Amino acid sequence: MTDACGILGDGSKAVKIHNLIKAPENTAESILRRESWDASKPATVYITPERMPDGSPCKAATVILRTRGCAWWWKSGCTFCGYFNDVRDDVTVEDLFQQWDEAKRKTNNFEGCSMVKVYTSGTFFEDSENPVEWQEHVLRETYSLGLHLVVEAQAHLCKPEKMAWLAERHPGATIAIGLEAYDDSVLRFHVNKGFTTKTWRKAVTNLRSNGLRVKTYLIFKPPFMSEGDALEHTSKWLVDVAPLSDEVSVNPMNIQNRTVVDRLFRNREYRPPWLWSLVEMIQRTHESTSGNNARIIVHPTAGGKIRGSHNCGLCDEQVVASIERYSVSKDISEFRGLDCDCKAIWKTEIESDINLPTPLGSGRNRRGLELDLMRAP
Amino acid sequence: MNTSNAERPLARGIVARQRFSRIFSLGDRKNPVSWTPGLVRMAQDPQIPINLCTFEFKRDNSKIPSSLSLRSLQDICLPFGDLETWYAQEGLILPPSLVDSDSGSKSIGNQFLPISWQSMHHDPNLLDDDLEPSVIALIDAPQLAERQGMLVDAIHALKSRFPTSLIWTPGIGGPDNCALLSWIGVDLFDLSRSHEASARGILLTEEGPRNIEETVDEDFDINSQLNAWKRAIAATRTAIRKGTLRELVERQALSSPRSVERLRRHDAKISEIASKDPGAAALESSVNIGTRLRCHSFTSREDPLIVDWKRRVADLHTPPNHQSKVLVLLPCSAQKPYRLSQSHRRFQRSIKVRGVNEVMVTAPLGLVPRELEDIWPAAHYDIPVTGDWDLDEMKTIISMVEKYAIRNGFLRIINHSGIDIKLEKIEIIDTRQGSTAGSSESLKRLEIEVERASKEFELENPKESVHRLEKLKSLSRFQYGTDAWLDHAKVSGRPPIFKIDIDNNQIALWNPRRGGFSFSKPSLSLLDGCNALPRVEINSGFDWRGDIFSTNLKSSDEGIRLGDDVLVFQQGKLIGSARATASGWEWPRGPGRLAKAQHRL
């Protein structure tokens, strides 16, 4: 049977998924290319319109820093995360202060902003990732400037003592946690998150008891999951996590370079979600989520592009715009009258995914000549 | 959840087969309710007639991983008496490109078994001999179909490991590829692509997807799509029955580049397997009288059957002993066997000695030596003839001539084929010189050159009975790898049927209409002694009378081709012979009858 075709019990040794991806990406050449940046400059600084916790419109600065990165990534790493492209293990405390100064210089001390998001490709307040003195500096400075602060964290790092420490230096800050999925099987297998839903719930308690705001990220369509399953599960998760959060941001999967998802995408084993799925998810959950105070944000990164959430190519712009508008207005009528021929095709894909034993999905490319797309796979 | 051994297995028999495709009858063998290739029904599907669909599939994704069930719509499981539902767990699987990892959770099932590329590599339970699912779902079929050759590899491995199981490739079948998928071994399909076609406003037909023609009131609703399925499945089933599935597959594959690729990949893979074990490659040694092999397309050349013929003639075949010096190349004829054609009767009149080896030049078989012209597929193929050879055909023929002639040590080639052949090491005489093969000048030249060669090389011209015996010996070497059983034989009888005797005991009959030897009882120990036939061992204590089933079979040799005679042993003792009705890949565990009894010693 071993001869069957090299398969069925050839006894070869199994390895962990992340080794399959990381090993080829960790060649000297690849590292050299990936880490060829200047550690004294932040990765990105930009200003966008936002909403304050009370819902009033404002301007927010986003500062993405170059750091030593997420401790979990160095150990294992989430399947879709491409943040490691902005990290290097030799970033010093001086580098971080310089980057912070550079961000302030670029924005003229956050002129006109009421909010600042400080993203570190990891957990802002994890001491092994970012030095404590720098954390403290940023917390206090942003507070003294009257800026609402948003930082990101992993759930298991939101310990009571640290949260109290943080709340003391910047009361009322928003802590964004990438929960991604409200299901332990999915966290373990599809996302490789490194923590459980129980840990997340504990983190929520720790944040709230310190007067900190909870922002929850959910991923829409993790790898190894079909479009249909993603729609059903994420809709459910959204309803479940909204009461425990001040904001929920549903992030439709986009393909970040050199990630597990990127590899699947290149092998035609994964396609980012349909925009229609996002619309459907919002419509299904609107009634339940609008009852509580949590703000629901759906921002299709690279929406309409092949590596982002996309439809047939004709309706994408319109559908992305409606989704973006909904995130601001919370008004379900944003989707009224929205239609396209591709919606029926999307619907059959969802039905097949849900009703067939094809856990990795049955969908194929969405763009091209109708007859060619229908030719036998 | 219940995936226990208490699940009742599917009652199934095989009604017809060709290579890796089969028509299973489902339910009581005497009164089946449905057949495969067929459909599996899903929640969103319309009603489907029971003769096309006897299974309903349900998936519950409320918990991760999902729970699956496959329900019979009729009383088709053993013991009869009620409907049956099989349960399974989908598991958490990785896509094929991450096959090196075993992360996730295993798919679980008993009579209905979900399998993935990953589980085929990492799940030791699949090696358990007791595991004999009724239906297998290849749950990453859509992903395997996206990657060159993987679907073919996966299905071939499953067929060999689970020869009794029905295989379902969810999400990829359509009326436009069901013949092809049947050809590589898939039994069950679903309507998912037809639903997609409906949504696109396209009709998915047996010839591929196309727009509807409103002038004849065509529709693309799901019932129209279902009608296309009905026609496609009917065409596939009837082709399997008639042994003409290959023709259908070659036609159907043209509707999609992926299908063409898949057929090529499968041809290459199976041809490679055939060179080691023709039974594992599902090749037949003889076929029903009246079967034709229609090689109407270029793709036919890649049929493992054709590739195997070309390889064996070029690399293995040895001519009759008295014909070892001079090779005469002749054109083929539309009529088979060639000797019955007008043109070949004329050639025979010009070739007046028995000591030259006549070999026909043809496409797509390349070369057909006269002594092999009655066997499958030489006596059965049919090609379109324009009178011109294309480059590929010429290349094939010339390379085969070179290999055959040099390996067998021929001293001269008399080339009456009209193809320009030049070899460095062997003298070649062109008797056509631009004329047609049947012209009186060409025939005269052929006659003169044969005559001249006969004198120059002092060719033997044995009497007719020796000539016949030597031809049969050569044929036996080609078919069985040995001619030792004919060492002391005498050939008699009226052509074309020959009687083969040893010491006035008939040991076999050569019937060119069947294209094979019919062995008689006294020959069996002789055949055993020279390893001419594959052997099978049936269970001790079993009183063998009729057919051979996997249930009474202990073991079997490799390399059994459908149509082969096999020697039957019990406790090491030869007790008879049987004729294989199943290909080697189905032995020894295949469903239904594997061989039909011939002789009981």
Key structural traits:
heterodimer; A: 377 residues; alpha/beta; eight-stranded mixed beta sheet; 14 helices; 8 strands; disordered N terminus; B: 601 residues; Rossmann fold; 4 domains; six-stranded mixed beta sheet; 23% strand
CA-CA gap between termini of chain A: 28 Å
What Rg of chain B do the Cα atoms give?
A: 27 Å
Rg of chain A: 21 Å
Helix content of chain B: 25-40%
Mean of pLDDT of chain A = 91
Order of helices and strands of chain A: HHEEHHEHEHEHHEHEHHEHHH
Number of separate strands of chain A: 8
Largest sheet of chain B: 6 strands, mixed
Low-confidence stretches of chain A: 1-6
Number of domains of chain B: 4
Please state the structural category of chain A. Answer: alpha/beta
Q: Looking across the biggest beta sheet of chain A, what order are the strands in?
A: 1-2-3-4-5-6-7-8
Distance between the termini of chain B: 52 Å
Apparent shape of chain B: globular
Question: What is the count of helical runs of chain B?
Answer: 14
Question: How would you describe this structure to a colleague?
Answer:
The complex is a heterodimer of chains A (377) and B (601). In chain A, 40% of the residues lie in helices and 14% in strands. By secondary structure, chain A is α/β, with parallel strands linked by helices. Chain A has a domain at 173-179 and 193-377. In chain A, helix 9 packs parallel to helix 11 (275-290), helix 9 packs across helix 13 and helix 11 runs parallel beside helix 12 (316-329). Chain A is globular. The relative contact order of chain A is 0.09. Chain B has 4 domains: 12-95 and 104-274, no CATH class; 317-456, Uracil-DNA glycosylase-like (Rossmann fold); 463-523; 533-601, PUA domain (Archaeosine Trna-guanine Transglycosylase, Chain: A, domain 4, Roll), CATH 2.30.130. In chain B, helix 10 (342-350) links the parallel strand 16 (326-331) and strand 17 (356-362). In chain B, helix 7 packs across helix 8 (257-274) and helix 8 packs parallel to helix 9 (304-315). The mean pLDDT of chain B is 95. Chains A and B meet through helix 1, helix 7, helix 9, helix 10 and helix 13 of A and strand 5, helix 1, helix 2, helix 3 and helix 5 of B.
